[in-house]
Amino acid sequence: MQKTLMAIALVLGGLVTYVDTRPTWDDTGITAAVLLAVAGVLGFFGHARPWLWALAVGSWIPLIAIARSQNYAALLALVFAFAGAYAGAAIHDRLNPAR
User: Fold this and answer.
1) Contact 58, 35 (CB under 8 A)
2) Cα–Cα distance for residue pair 94/88, rounded to 1 Å
3) CA 85 to CA 77: how far, in whole Å?
């Protein structure tokens, strides 16, 4: 299950980054919401390691932005990814109190 989630996280993170780097795309709010949602779903299903899903999904945008234009503000994308992943893990833990 962990390998499958990692593959999904890397592919979806890459797709979000691809869309975000298009010259015609200028909607940071939607990008942030998608990062939050994708990391949240992965955090729900992989609740033992939410930090891993946050990094797998959210690290693409800062890496590309820093490499291309030294845009360190793109590190804020990680905030949304971490918030989503930990929220998903918290929801999973709340729905399954036996663990």
Assistant:
1) yes
2) 10
3) 13
Alpha helices for the chain (secondary structure H): 2-20, 28-45, 50-58, 60-69, 76-95
Could you tell me how far CA 56 lies from the centroid of its own chain? 7
Residues of the chain with confidence (pLDDT) below 50: none
Query: Sign of the C-alpha dihedral, residues 55, 56, 57, 59?
Result: positive
Amino acid at 64: I
Question: Tokens at residue 73, please?
Answer: 């503000």
Note the pLDDT tens digit of each residue in 64-91.
999 999 989 889 999 999 999 999 999 9
Q: Say how far apart CA 86 and CA 81 lie, in whole Å.
A: 9
Say what the pLDDT of residue 51 is.
94
Rounded to the nearest angstrom, the gap between the alpha carbon of residue 81 and the centroid of all alpha carbons in its chain is 4
For residues 55 and 81, what is the distance between their CA atoms, to the nearest angstrom?
7
Q: What is the Cα–Cα distance from 82 to 35, expressed in whole angstroms? A: 9
Distance of alpha carbon 12 from alpha carbon 41, whole angstroms: 12
